[in-house]
Amino acid sequence: MIADSYFDGFRTPKYAARGRVRRWLIRRFVRSLFDLIEASGPVSSVLEVGMGEGFVSGLLLDRFPCARFSGVDASGEDIARVRSRFPRIAATVGTAYDLSDVAGAPHDLILCIEVLEHLDAPERALDSIANARPRRAVVTVPHEPFFRLSNLAAGKNVRRLGNDPEHIQQFRPRSLRTLLERRFEVVALRGSYPWLLALVR
């Protein structure tokens, strides 16, 4: 269970939201994410791409206390917050399109959590992840049209038909699988309303 106090430390609207339903959905999503990770094998090194304020990696620190954690995000402000709150994570300012400065030796796990929908060229980010040669990777995206419908039900982004202003890509299970299969073997693809989670290698 994720304590409410953990949510309260973040500014990102998704995680800072105080609504009980929203937090319940995020907790269920995180459980699904952790189940996927833990069933996939041992974890000694983790790289999170587009880590934002470190919500997911911060939670994983307790799950894998001996693992080495690193992360990259384009926002210098978010990286500064990660370094302050989670000093165990080697956080670096950078782009999902070029991981050459942070990849190093192959990682057991690369995370790309709620990133692809924000990118002009998600295929380039996946190429970059594939070039880093992870043993496996987990990719998550909003599950459309359900993500937009849940926003509409909550009265959010009504003029945009529920679409978040920063979301420039839309994914359904088939389109996500097609994008991933050009670069990886898709081991699992599942939903946790209103998100999709994929484990690849």
Order of helices and strands: HHHEHEHEEHEHHEE
State the major sheet.
7 strands, mixed
Write the CATH architecture name: 3-Layer(aba) Sandwich
* Rg calc: 16 Å
Which whole number gives the mean pLDDT? Answer: 93
Category from helices, strands and their pairing: alpha/beta
CATH class: Alpha Beta
How far apart are the first and last residues' alpha carbons, in Å? 28 Å
CATH topology: Rossmann fold
Shape: globular
Helix percentage range: 25-40%
Total of helices: 8
Compact description:
37% of the residues lie in helices and 20% in strands.
Question: What is this structure's SSE topology?
Answer:
Elements: H1 4-7, H2 13-16, H3 20-39, E1 45-49, H4 55-63, E2 68-73, H5 76-85, E3 89-93, E4 109-113, H6 122-131, E5 136-142, H7 146-153, H8 173-181, E6 186-192, E7 195-200
Parallel strand pairs: 1-2, 1-4, 2-3, 4-5
Antiparallel strand pairs: 5-7, 6-7
